[in-house]
Write a structure and sequence with these properties.
Number of helices: 14
Number of strands: 16
Largest sheet: 7 strands, parallel
Structural class: alpha/beta
Helix content: 40-55%
Order of helices and strands: HHHHHEEEHEHEHEHEHEHEHEEHEHEEEE
Mean pLDDT: 95
Strand order of the largest sheet: 10-9-11-8-7-12-13
Length: 424
């Protein structure tokens, strides 16, 4: 089946995935772990092959005039390959969630009722740029007993094809169906449009990329979507705080890396600490070239300087993904929480405080997928959370929320154990 006839091609891929999902749901933990360890070994052995494929993508990207930061995201360096190989081994070492029964309790009728964790079935992953996502998605699919259909960015096609061949070889080595992980081999966007409207073949769609991609998938999909649109993450500096800690954590949350969705985009500072804190963090940001878009009170405390500008209302809700941060003074914890719940994207928000009751209120009342106390928002990541890897970060409120790892790729079904009981 060639990718030229898009409807027939995607239907064929979907049918193969559905058949493979049945086999994967029944696969033993030993077989799945064998496949993951084999994949890690093959990744380490295929350095030159992967480098050659990646170089073809990089050359094409530069010829097409792709911006250098985007070209950088395409690179499959030895370090990147070593990291994804290690991730495969970590996932292999993790407990298998499939088949776990929880909450089993005896009813007066004599039956025992509980819930069993089972794979979702087939998920479609649509992502941009970074080819390492191919391995992260494949490894999580294998361990969670799912089949997956991957569609990476056109700019990484050669790298993704090379990685996918290693995945299929590892599956076959472990006695599992090669079709459990498939890659859409065409860059035609119509393939995505077809894939996300096939509930007979696909159980859930996971888009991972820019806002435009995710909005398109959410609007057009006819199957459930696990998504997040924005990462407008906040750091709130409370009235009672360790100032040294606050400067260190705020700096890391914003400047450790500007492009990830868990980088801080908004800084809220309690008025009681503003005079002591803002000049210190302002000096750090200025030294690193971070533009500060401030409310009137924050701007007055930071003083006139080229990188301090007045914020507009739109700034409070903006995900910059750049060396820019909005800064606002607040007069209470209540105001901080209200601001975050109104303007935030429900991704990740942190409070920096030495006052335990305020920390607990923040954890309970901030309506976000990850809420933190005295830690950088940059920790909102599946690997850092001990999930081995993540398929993405969800800001939805049902099923999976926050970094989506193995358990996020499963669901629960009710099981009933009896000994011949009948309902009277």
């Amino acid at each position: 089946m060639t990718p030229t006839d898009i409807p027939a091609y995607v239907a064929h891929v979907g049918a193969l995935a559905r058949a493979a999902a049945t086999a994967m749901a029944a696969a033993t933990t030993a077989a799945k772990d064998q496949a993951l360890r084999a994949l890690a070994r093959r990744l380490r052995e295929a350095g030159s092959e992967l480098a050659a494929a990646n170089e073809r993508d990089l050359a094409a990207a530069r010829t097409a005039g792709l911006a250098e930061p985007l070209v950088d995201r395409l690179k499959l360096t030895p370090k990147v390959i070593a990291t994804v190989a290690e991730g495969c081994e970590q996932i292999a070492a993790m407990p298998d969630p499939v088949g776990e029964i929880s909450g089993l309790r005896r009813r007066p009728s004599g039956i025992a009722v509980g819930q069993m964790r089972v794979p979702l079935g087939v998920f479609a992953m649509i992502y941009e740029s970074r080819p390492n996502v191919t391995i992260e998605a494949a490894s999580l699919a294998i361990k969670s007993g799912n089949a997956c259909i991957l569609r990476g960015g056109s700019e990484a096609l050669q790298s993704n094809l090379a990685l996918w061949r290693l995945v299929q070889a590892a599956l076959v080595e472990a006695g599992l169906p090669a079709d459990a992980v498939q890659l859409i081999e065409t860059t035609d966007r119509a393939a995505v449009g077809r894939l996300i409207t096939m509930p007979e073949c696909v159980d859930v769609v996971i888009p991972r990329g820019g806002k435009g991609l995710i909005e398109r998938i959410s609007a057009e999909a006819r199957v459930p979507v696990i998504k997040h649109l924005d990462g407008n993450c906040h750091v709130y500096v409370d009235a009672e705080v360790d100032l040294d800690l606050a400067v260190t954590v705020t700096d890391n949350a914003k400047t450790q890396k500007y492009s990830p969705c868990n980088a801080a985009e908004s800084l809220l500072v309690h008025a009681a600490q503003a005079a002591a804190f803002l000049p210190r963090i302002g000096a750090v940001f200025a030294a690193k070239g971070v533009e500060m878009r401030c409310c009137a009170r924050a701007a007055a405390l930071l003083g006139p300087q080229p990188l301090v500008v007045r914020a507009t209302e739109a700034d409070w809700a903006t995900e910059y993904l750049a060396p820019v941060i909005s800064i606002k003074l607040v007069d209470s914890l209540d105001e901080a929480i209200a601001h975050i719940n109104r303007f935030g994207s429900h991704h990740t928000d942190a409070i920096l405080t030495t006052h335990h009751p305020n920390a607990m209120r923040f954890l309970r009342e901030v309506d976000s997928a990850s809420v933190m106390v005295n830690a950088s928002t940059r920790f909102a990541d599946g690997f850092e959370y001990g999930l081995g890897a993540e398929i993405g970060i969800s800001t939805d409120k049902f099923h999976a929320r926050g970094p989506v790892g193995l358990e996020g790729l499963t669901s629960m079904k009710w099981v009933v154990l009896g000994q011949g009981e009948v309902r009277g």
